[in-house]
Design a protein that fits this description.
With 164 residues, this protein is mainly α. Helix content is 44%, strand content 10%. Helix 3 packs across helix 5. Belongs to the protein disulfide isomerase family. One of its GO terms (molecular function) is protein disulfide isomerase activity.
Length: 164
C-alpha cells in the first residue's frame, strides 16, 4: 500500500512540474517505454512541449476526449513530452512546432469523432442483440451482416478484407 501511495505522489509531482493538466485517462509514454507501449493497442499519441501555446490550448480538450474514451478497450490516447523524451520524438519524425497528422477541430467531440472514425477497428463482432442496440461507433456508415457462426466463409472473407 505504501509503495502505491509513493508512486502516485511521484506521478502527481511529475504532472505538477510539467505545468499542464493531467488525467488518469491519458497514457504518458517516455523514451524508456514508448516502443513497447505504443504497439499494445491502437493509440492516438500527442507529442508536445510544455512551452508550446498550441499544446497548452489542446491539452484540456485532449484530456476530455481521453476520459470519454477511457472505457473503450480498443483505443488509447497517450502523450509524449518531447523536451524530456527527445529520442522518441526524433524517432517518429517530430521536427517542430505545430506538426500534426491530426487536422480536425480541437474540441473534445471532434477528437473523439476522429478517433472513432480513424483508429477504432474496421469491424466489430457483436454476439448478442443488446450489444448491437448499444453499439455507437460514431461513424457515418456501417455494414451490418448476420452470420450463423464466426467460422462462416463469408465472414472470414469480410474480416480478411477489412484487415488491410
Amino acid at each position: 500500500m505504501f509503495i502505491i501511495y509513493v508512486s502516485l505522489l511521484a506521478i502527481a509531482a511529475q504532472y505538477v512540474a510539467e505545468g499542464l493538466p493531467c488525467s488518469y485517462a491519458v497514457l504518458n509514454f517516455t523514451d524508456a517505454d514508448f516502443k513497447d507501449r505504443i504497439v499494445q493497442m491502437p493509440t492516438l499519441c500527442l507529442f508536445y512541449v510544455n512551452w508550446c501555446s498550441y499544446c497548452k490550448a489542446l491539452m484540456p480538450q485532449y484530456i476530455k476526449a481521453a476520459e470519454s474514451l477511457v472505457n473503450d478497450p480498443t483505443v488509447a490516447l497517450a502523450r509524449v513530452e518531447c523536451y524530456s523524451n527527445y529520442n522518441t520524438c526524433v524517432a517518429v519524425c517530430v521536427r517542430g512546432q505545430n506538426q500534426t497528422a491530426y487536422n480536425s477541430a480541437q474540441s473534445e467531440d471532434a477528437i473523439v469523432k476522429w478517433v472513432k472514425g480513424n483508429i477504432l477497428p474496421t469491424y466489430i463482432l457483436v454476439k448478442i442483440e443488446v450489444e448491437l442496440e448499444n453499439l455507437n461507433t460514431g461513424r457515418k456508415f456501417a455494414l451490418i451482416g448476420r452470420f450463423t457462426s464466426e467460422q462462416s466463409p463469408v465472414l472470414k472473407v469480410l474480416k480478411g478484407s477489412f484487415d488491410l
